[in-house]
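Table S2 (continued). Query chain:
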Amino acid sequence: MVIDQFLLAAFLASLVGYALLYILRFKNENDRKTSASKVRNERVKNLINNGECRPENRSGTDVIIVGAGVAGAALAYTLGKDALRVRVIERDLTEPDRIVGELLQPGGYLKLLELGLEDCVEEIDAQRVFGYALFKDGRNTRLSYPLEKFNSDVSGRSFHNGRFIQRMRKKAASLSNVQMEQGTVTSLIEENGTIKGVQYKTKSGEELKACAPLTIVCDGCFSNLRRSLCNPKVEVQSCFVGLVLENCQLPFPNHGHVVLANPSPILFYPISSTEVRCLVDVPGQKVPSIANGEMAKYLKTVVAPQVPPELHDAFISAIDQGSIRTMLNRSMPADPYPTPGALLMGDAFNMRHPLTGGGMTVALSDIVVLRDLLRPLQDMNDASALCKYLESFYTFPVASTINTLAGALYKVFCASPDQARKEMRDACFDYLALGGVCSTGPVGLLSGLNPRPLSFVLHFFAVAIYGVGRLLLPLPSPNRLWLGARLISGASAIIFPIIKAEGVRQMFFPATVPAYYRVPPVK
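Corresponding output:
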């Protein structure tokens, strides 16, 4: 009995001793890991501060995002929500004040929903937009978005651009793994053909370097980094002259308004419950001087007589207040150089005429594509394999369709002394006014709800054929036949160069591009 008690006591003592030994060992192992992690993090910090980019820094940041505009802020939140460690470097974190980027199409709002950013259009006095009203020579027609198949919350949204961006920045910065700082990126750090990070200057003027396996450049239309990542062919088609009309009622509430004026379109849309944005398009790169009063005179004598009567007084009042701003309208097709360690996005990657308000829809659509491409990746440190895989990012036709639509519509909507172009413009207005598929089809493309390139081409040439048909009825004549031929030729001259610049294969046959089938690299 005594022996049994001794054995029992020895067994219990051994058990307690083993447990204590295991606890001590586990604690020491954790201490070693914590110590190693601190050393590693300190080493990363030192590497960055010393301006070196080496593989060891992989524990610090997964993705560097240059720019925190619409694309950069939305991307930061999206990747941060997927547990990637994101570092955002933005030149100016104060609220932007722009005259574009204020109308989000329904297709873009659907992408906001998909990204979990729909609350960013709340609490900024954003206005719902249900379609467009088109004005020409005293006539008008309303074009509604085809929203029947969607929830009642789905529509376009218009707002102050800066308020929207600040909401997205705040939401991105609320994630613990997203670091947002103010600084001006001056260059990309390249080693043996691979982008390792960026060099930037802080607000205080200190020059630092940041390193990550992937750098995404979203620094907007004035990007100073895109030249090393793409072949930029920037074209300035016109200028926007921006005004804010106050306390006036649009002829069609909760609609964007497009006036087919001479020489080019005028846009009106609400940006708050009391304000309406007016954008007057002026062809070319030069506009009348604001300082010497030429601009005010131009707006009052040339533009004001073409403004809908309901907005005329508010338009004149806005001119008299003197808050006139201008902006160049740039277009640039995407023509990237696949570069290990770097990617372009947003207006730094491609631009289109802002007439159709498609820029934010393109950016948000691209973010969804990139998010889905990055999700399966376990390791992003193989720059060459990652670059080859991400080439598939450039094969999706949504952006190409919206870009082509914007370029073609602008050219059609501008007045021209050429009779064939004039007939095309008249035919476009009358075609849209027919209603049914003649309006829902093009508006579905414009809204980003149906960005199918083939549908766009079919509707574009349907407008041209409709114009020819009107010319030949009731009886054709040699002059009318010749004018009809010129109309078809002119339509082709508008659309085909734009399609060629965007890329025929990428736009219509993405499945024939080898990169379309790229799979995530396996470590």
